[in-house]
Task: structure prediction
Amino acid sequence: MDLKELRRLPLPKLRDLAKQETDLKGVIGMEKEALIEAIAKAKGISYETMPKDVTAIHSIKHEIKDLRKHKAELLSASPDRKKLTKIQRKIKRLRRLTRKLAHETKMTTKPAETAPSSPPPSAAPSTPPENPPAAG
Result:
């Protein structure tokens, strides 16, 4: 059994599998992905987290665009405050979600940073000059 097969199984079957074939405890309270990770670890299957998909951000932005059109239609037809407020809140939540996804995508694709071995060239020297200029 590999990771793909584990992900295809429904949660109740995953719980049964965890109880029967591994000695995991607390499987009833686990979420599906956490349970899959625990089963994979117990069985020695390599578990890799899937990176966030950039197309998700684009689809969310498309949804925001549609909501803005709907908001403009509501404003021109009949300004119903309740509906407008709901649309504005949904747009705000979706914008936050796009920022979060973009940040997570940036963090997963960011190369490992190395510490610089020497100070940058624009840094000021740490020792004072030997002959200060004479005051006149």
Notes: The helical segments are 3-8, 11-21, 32-43, 54-77, 81-109.
